[in-house]
Specification:
Helices cover 50% and strands 12% of the residues. With 329 residues, it is of the alpha/beta class. It folds into 2 domains: 3-176, Rossmann fold (3-Layer(aba) Sandwich); 179-322, Orthogonal Bundle (N-(1-d-carboxylethyl)-l-norvaline Dehydrogenase, domain 2). β7 (146-151), α6 (155-165) and β8 (170-175) form a beta-alpha-beta unit. The longest helix is centred in the middle third of the chain and has 23 residues, at 178-200.
């Protein structure tokens, strides 16, 4: 593989374009915003979504999907709720067997579909893969050490994609369980909002640790019910991503929870943010999907209720703490 395309000119898409360029791939970044295209091509920066980070000068930006048609692999990094539209627009330019690496972490509202299902419906001729794991865009873009999961049902393809993207500071571990990798990335965003609420409410580190642990139990149950493997989410794309997202104010999802825990409204918590907090859109989808699958997810349920205005923060916390005692396993 010698060339790469990246769909999505936000912070994470730009960071992954950096990874591709540093791995020696000729890289084209598709962005919806004209100002992003202009800034990347003229000044080698994305001042809108990733200010202060010098981009590799080899990265070329475009607003035309046709410029990605000849790529050896494509990374789809549009937000989960916009991925279907982006892939539908890109589909006419996709040849049979093109590896499309899904990098958005979420569950589609309405359809309750994972991103691999969205890809299968919009670009069935593509070869699907999933990239997920503990990774902040700014750190990856600056070249700080990062390890992620790269999942593809074809083990040789997973290995080839991992080798194509690997750099001294970006280390993909390959796997074959795409569902587990997707579930971990999507559900941890909802749990990060819960952790932010706990911290914003000043409930202490013990409560924070308990929430991460019990949240991981919910995440694992959901992943297995969806058809994934518990072993997958015990790795970077589940536990690793959960620990990072629930432990740093850099996390967009945790920052939303912090604001809610401090008494702000959801509208105020989201005001002025250009980057997407995927957990806000995924929470109601996770709740609906858990109900459909018959999976007990009380923390995700509480977050969805708070975001929907069905329960206040203190009421939702009280419900969680008054649940019947049970065996931990």
């Amino acid at each position: 593989m010698k060339t790469a395309g990246v769909i999505g000119g936000g912070a994470w898409g730009t960071a992954l374009a950096q990874v591709c360029a540093r791995a020696g791939l000729e890289t084209v970044l598709w962005a919806r915003e004209p100002e992003v295209v202009e800034a990347v091509n003229a000044r080698h920066e994305n001042s809108l979504f990733l200010p202060g980070v010098a981009l590799e000068p080899e990265i070329r930006a475009t607003a035309d999907f046709a410029n990605l048609a000849d790529r050896d692999l494509v990374l789809a990094v549009a937000p989960a709720q916009h991925l279907r539209g982006a892939l539908t627009a890109f589909a006419p330019h996709v040849r049979d067997g093109l590896p499309i690496l899904l990098c958005a972490k979420g569950i589609e509202q309405g359809s309750l579909k994972l991103m691999t299902e969205v890809l299968a419906e919009t670009v069935p001729q593509a070869a699907p893969a999933v990239l997920s794991g503990p990774s902040f865009a700014g750190e990856v873009a600056r070249g700080l050490p990062t390890a992620v999961t790269l999942a593809c049902p074809d083990e040789d393809c997973a290995r080839n994609l991992s080798e194509a993207l690997a750099t001294p500071t970006f280390r993909p571990y390959f796997a074959t369980d795409m569902i587990g990798a997707e579930a971990g990335g999507a559900i941890k965003n909802v749990l990060a909002i819960a952790c932010g609420i706990v911290e914003g409410r000043g409930m202490g580190r013990s409560a924070h640790a308990a929430l991460i642990t019990r949240g991981f139990a919910e995440l694992t149950r959901m992943a297995v019910a969806l058809g994934g493997e518990a072993e997958t989410v015990a790795g970077l794309c589940g536990l690793g991503d959960l620990v990072l997202t629930c432990s740093s104010h850099q996390s967009r999802n945790m920052s939303v929870g912090l604001a809610l825990g401090r008494g702000e409204t959801l509208e105020a918590a989201l005001a002025g943010k250009l980057s997407v907090a995927e957990g806000v859109a995924s929470a109601p989808a996770v709740r609906q999907l858990a109900a459909r699958l018959g999976v007990d997810t009380p923390i995700c349920e509480a977050v969805a209720a708070i975001l929907a205005g069905e329960a206040g923060v203190d009421e939702a916390i009280a419900r969680l703490l008054s649940r019947p005692l049970r065996e931990e396993r």
